[in-house]
Amino acid sequence: MSKLHSSQRQHFQFSNIVGGRTFGFVDLAELMAKATPARSGDRLAGVAAESAEERVIAQMTLADVPLSLFLEQALVPYEADEITRLILDDHDKTAFSLISHLTVGGFRDWLLSDLATSDVLTKIRPGVTPEMAAAVSKIMRNQDLILVAKKCHVKTAFRNTIGLPGHLSTRLQPNHPTDDLTGIAASMLDGLLYANGDAVIGINPATDNVQQATRLIKMMDEVIQHYEIPTQSCVLTHVTNTIECIEQGAPVDLVFQSIGGTQATNDSFGFNLANLAEAQDAALSLNRGTVGNNVMYFETGQGSALSANANHGLDQQTCEARAYAVARKFNPLLVNTVVGFIGPEYLYDGKEITRAGLEDHFCGKLLGLPMGCDVCYTNHAEADQNDMDNLLTLLGVAGCTFVMGIPGSDDIMLNYQTTSFHDALYARKVLGLKPSPEFDLWLAKMEIFKNNEQFTLNHQLPDAFHKSLNRMIGGRS
Amino acid sequence: MSQDIPQSNKSFPTHPHASVVTGKEEPVTENAWSKLNAFTDARVGLGRSGISVPTKHLLAFQLAHAQAIDAVHTQLDSGALSKALLEQDWAKDWTKNCPPLMLHSRATDRATYLQRPDYGRRLDEESANKLDEHRASTTQDYDLAIVVVDGLSSLAIEQNTLPFLQALASHINDWKLTPICFVKQGRVAIGDDICERLNAKCVLVLIGERPGLSSPDSLGLYLTWGGKVGFTDAYRNCISNVRPAGLVYQEAARKAFYLLNEARTLKLSGVKLKDRSDDDLIMDTSKESKNFLIS
């Protein structure tokens, strides 16, 4: 793409002479894209570096860019994109003043240093733009992404408290290909008895309309009330559907929406920022939270902008980070990067999925989001359970807010593999990560955990579930 | 591929005495609720070794994943499939004037195919020439091009193509067909390229769908009226999950024929062509499932 004959004259905003050869980059967008660690989606978009050498030269060049340049040069035009306007209009100069003297490379050093304590990282959040976060992540190794993310503490709450250090929550995801209530209830029971579901019990509906969403919202609400579970429910339907559900009196806990990092991406998803504000207000008006009022649940994923033809020549990781500006505007309870779902056109193999998962988690946390990750893959990606084990472990070390939990890793509705109920217990056990404190007490009260400190499950079926189970399978249980 | 390999967790061993609590420490703890797997394909009640998945369930999962991977990466033997088609009585009319055409997309191999969806949507030069030559060789009007594409599951194509086409054949006696086209490394939209070059009124693409863990053999059908390069999904009608354990052949053929007929009448396809082939079926709401956790 950018291989230029010497006869061609082109203005380079950035250039770098290495070994007698000049490497040029026409603008900040190109520099960012070429500095991005290799992945298939950027190759598909035609924005990736053309050689390993060019990539590192781009990273060296990017390291010398002052952070303040990102406030002067919008990667997507201010006039054309409401997310650019959101990023620049909401930027906090006072918070930024602590890091305004730094270059991208200097920012990495600063983030890794003891100067960047958890408290200081909280202070600078409103001064960090998604583009600054994306830029510094491009020159960070995986261990850097883990180390800094672990220092970023983001606490949210609805019926329980999520994101405390030393904790890991799980979304119980009881999807069923026909939204069959018995099938959904079976997966819910399985998950609860494996101590999962403190982040949210969240269903991707197979039939996506208001009526179906209401049916599923009611069903989950009944279970949560019946067993007095300190958690919240969500049906992952379009934001405009959820607004209608609320208007019709459905017991909505969390509002869901898939979000992207450019206005055109969100146009293709059929919503804008005003819709999200309206939905947030509607959910807040129900006043259903008991310990907090974070009512939004967002999902993101690298590649969504390109797949909607809405990437404005940007690399997919920069687009992804810009989606976090949308998320943080609405104080979400949970943000989930569904990292391996999009397929090998965007993230080819386990290595690319792992890198993207760590980048997304780091950028989200740096920007102040309760960042979780759907550690997952499809059957046409070059990835398997071992890759998922690795990424789950890395994210657990990095202080990831939550992961998914599903029976035996197999989502029979969406036809992909994500982390299982067992996987969450593995992460707890090897890393000592506890569930949300309110949920942890409930697990003890219900006798699901025999020993909360050791994450040991009870051998007996807890009494409270006997009756339901007998009704279903009868006889001896 | 062997037929007797379990493809669904329905065939997982169940445990009639699943909830036995022995009092002594067993390495595997069975779940009292394992029988719930009778009500869902989800892998519920697997039990646990410590907190981990027991060996037999671990390996059953690995087998399902292996089958899905093989479905993606095993090359379609379109030569064998074409030969088998030529031997079918019901296909005699389709093949008597011209044997099936063997085509290839611009994606040279599977790795390229997986990363470059744009290449998979277009024919390579040799294939395009083959079609252009055929078109120039005859003045025949064509109603329908049937295009068989490997897609993401060669297994789906190998297992479902002939039985589905046999079920469809009796419905479309009066349709003038182009030579049957077999395409390797193709995506759905390659049917439009073929439809346009052969100047057929309509194209029906049979393609291997993205394999699920318990459905590595799922066939998809895509219908486009007047397919042309550059058409988006908005111009297509889709019938999904065609396989013995999903939408069975007779049903799939009935739906496909309904859409073909409607498309021919309305001279269009896609979002403006609604599938009302089930409108005469009465929903039985008495079988609505219940939430057993609370009632």
TrEMBL record, chain A:
Cited InterPro entries: Aldolase_TIM, EutB, EutB_dom_2_sf, EutB_N_sf
Catalysis: reaction(s): ethanolamine = acetaldehyde + NH4(+)
One family name in Pfam for this protein: EutB
One GO cellular component term: ethanolamine ammonia-lyase complex
Binding site for substrate: 171-173, 204, 299, 374
Homology family: Belongs to the EutB family.
PANTHER family: ETHANOLAMINE AMMONIA-LYASE HEAVY CHAIN (PTHR39329), ETHANOLAMINE AMMONIA-LYASE LARGE SUBUNIT (PTHR39329:SF1)
Name of the protein in question: Ethanolamine ammonia-lyase large subunit
From TrEMBL, chain B:
Binding site for adenosylcob(III)alamin: 188, 209, 238
This protein's pathway: Amine and polyamine degradation; ethanolamine degradation
One Pfam family here: EutC
UniProt cofactor(s): adenosylcob(III)alamin
UniProt xrefs under InterPro entries: EutC (IPR009246), EutC_C (IPR042251), EutC_N (IPR042255)
Main location, first listed in the record: other
Keywords for this protein: Bacterial microcompartment, Cobalamin, Cobalt, Lyase
Catalytic reaction equation(s): ethanolamine = acetaldehyde + NH4(+)
Cofactor note: Binds between the large and small subunits.
Subcellular localization, as worded in the UniProt entry: Bacterial microcompartment
EC number(s) given by UniProt: 4.3.1.7
Single Gene Ontology BP annotation: amino acid metabolic process
A GO-annotated cellular component: ethanolamine degradation polyhedral organelle
Compositionally biased intervals (Polar residues): 1-12
Region annotation (Disordered) ranges: 1-27
GO MF entries: cobalamin binding; ethanolamine ammonia-lyase activity
Family: Belongs to the EutC family.
Function in brief: Catalyzes the deamination of various vicinal amino-alcohols to oxo compounds. Allows this organism to utilize ethanolamine as the sole source of nitrogen and carbon in the presence of external vitamin B12.
Quaternary structure annotation from Swiss-Prot or TrEMBL: The basic unit is a heterodimer which dimerizes to form tetramers. The heterotetramers trimerize; 6 large subunits form a core ring with 6 small subunits projecting outwards.
Protein name from the UniProt record: Ethanolamine ammonia-lyase small subunit
Taxonomic source organism: Marinomonas foliarum
